[in-house]
Amino acid sequence: MTDTNAAPTAHVPVVIVGAGPAGLTVGNILRAAGVDCVVLETETREFIEQRPRAGVIEEWCVRGLERRGLADTLLERAQRHTECEFRFGGRRHRLRYVDLTGRHHYVYPQPWLVTDLVREYADVRGGDVRFSVRDVRLHGLDTDRPSVSYLCPDTGERRTIRCDFVAGCDGARGVTRAALPPERLRVARHDYGVGWLALLAEAPASSDCVVFGIHPRGFAGHMARSSEVTRYYLEVPRGDDPDTWSHDRVWAELQERLASDAPPLTEGRLIEKRVLDMHNYVVEPMVFGRLFLAGDAAHLTAPIAAKGMNLALHDAFHLGDGLVAHLTRGDDSGLRTYSEACLARVWDCQEFSLWLSEIYHGTSSGDPYRAATTLARLRRVFTSPAAATAFAEQFLGPRPD
Ligand code: FAD
Fold it and tell me: 256 in a domain, yes or no?
């Protein structure tokens, strides 16, 4: 349903800002319980259904989607991955995490998941989503009568929606985080001091699993997305200009950093090429008055350990369930413990990202001490079953309920 009729909505229990994985999952949980909500999104539906980003989803997360009736298509189309590979010293080192944990990863491109979630929310469950809105503002968050206003894309008029709760799911560049008064929150930030050139290639995967290239010239990563598209990463200096990375330069560097006794990578046209400034942040608490932040709006984890979307969905499950419990049964427990429950998982992933980042970036740091300890860390993972299991547990996330 789109915002074409002239009358502004008087009141809905929940306004959700942002139609990413977090916002759409919260919306779906609310609609399934018969709770009304409005999702506000600055982009068009076509845009969010095509925006490429994540691809690796943890098993517990898929089970969480499945329990909420949101994983039918994913379960039909997703690949199942049971191992990963590190390449260093010109050799391949496989880690069969399924043997260590009994668990696997799903590979399912984020735009496919967003497409499934928006279809279920808007077309199946009859949810109200307003695309292309402008200048979203939050009001009265520390009162019992908050509201959210925005400029209607068709008329340019400001419309106001009164509500009981606001879900801030508008990602790293949204507006909801800025509505928290600075004196009421702590923002913890970590900069990795490197950039990653994030690439999407029109080429089939060159390996049946995720590959991490640990190389003195810098990290390189290979991650399957679909049968036609593969994601690659190259560590580059922070702020590097993606235009200096020609097709030939990218492939030469990838071939070199991922070189092993395996056949060379299958090359293809580069359809995405952008430099990510690798940093993390965490906002604490994730709640102010009637505003609940979820996903990248509250915490960012650079794609080092492929955790961001998984954490966004973890928040969304807690927030959706907590809102339903409060609004339908007067049970406050979920909302009261929301921030604490999410942050415990968030910090666990932050710590793992830091640990893994040292493996990825140590050998290229130019510091012989860091380079040697990185290799010691890697050797330990491949010689100690206990160390391998500890890695696998963190990499795969928690055991599904
Ligand atoms: P978003 O997906 O950012 O959604 C927020 C939505 O809010 C967007 O649609 C945006 O348009 C909208 N919005 C913004 N501002 C406003 C506003 N003012 N008003 C209304 N709407 C607004 N994570 C993984 O778990 N696994 C991976 O393999 C992985 N790979 C990644 C690879 C790359 C290259 C990148 C960049 C990220 C990757 N991530 C991965 C992270 C993952 O993509 C994010 O963590 C995830 O998108 C967060 O979801 P979200 O719903 O919180 O935010």
Answer: no
8 A C-beta contact, residue 267 and residue 203 = yes
Q: Using a 6 Å cutoff on CB, does residue 375 contact ligand 1? A: no
Please choose from 17, 46, 53 the residue to mutate so as to test ligand 1's pocket, defined by most ligand atoms within 8 A of CB.
53
Provide the domain limits for residue 160: 7-80+104-188+280-352
pLDDT of residue 10: 84
Residue 169 is assigned to a structural domain of this protein: yes
Q: What single DSSP character describes residue 205?
A: -
Q: How far apart are CA 172 and CA 194, in angstroms?
A: 19
User: Residue 401 — pLDDT band, cuts 50, 70, 90?
Assistant: confident
By most ligand atoms within 8 Å of CB, the mutation choice from 200, 296, 396 for ligand 1 is 296
Does ligand 1 have an atom closer than 6 angstroms to the CB of 21?
yes
300 lines ligand 1 (CB under 6 A): no
Q: How many structural domains does the chain have?
A: 1
DSSP H or E run through 395: helix 385-396
Domain of 177, CATH number, reads 3.50.50.60
Q: In which element (H, E) is residue 164 found?
A: strand 158-168
- pTM of the shown model: 0.95
Asked whether the predicted pLDDT for residue 109 surpasses 50, the reply is yes
